[in-house]
């Protein structure tokens, strides 16, 4: 029985590790596209930066949901 509890803890840790890949890739894409857009139209840098930070905040909210979910689900 003790072995099962150890496996469940490990599975939730691995699950969050896998869940963190998505937001990490998403943030990388958002930042990369913002840099690309700024290079193409430097006059839009301010607007792109604001949209980038909003996008990063939404992506990181998904990461926070991913880290909180294993604590609420049995």
Q: N-to-C SSE series? A: HHH
- N- to C-terminal distance: 16 Å
Mean pLDDT: 83
Count the E strands.
0
- Helix content range of the residues, please? over 70%
Q: Which strand-content bin applies to the residues?
A: under 5%
CATH architecture of the domain at 18-67: Up-down Bundle
Largest sheet: none
The number of helical runs is 3
What form results from the Cα inertia axes? elongated
**Tell me, what is the CATH class of the domain at 18-67?**
Mainly Alpha
CATH overall fold name of the domain at 18-67: F1FO ATP Synthase
* Oligomeric form: single chain
**Which stretches are poorly predicted, pLDDT < 50 over at least 5 residues?**
none
Given helix and strand content, the structural type is: mainly alpha
The whole-angstrom Rg is 18 Å
Full CATH superfamily name of the domain at 18-67: F1F0 ATP synthase subunit C
Describe the structure.
The chain contains three helices and no strands. It has helices at 2-19, 21-40, 45-72. It is elongated, with a radius of gyration of 18 Å.
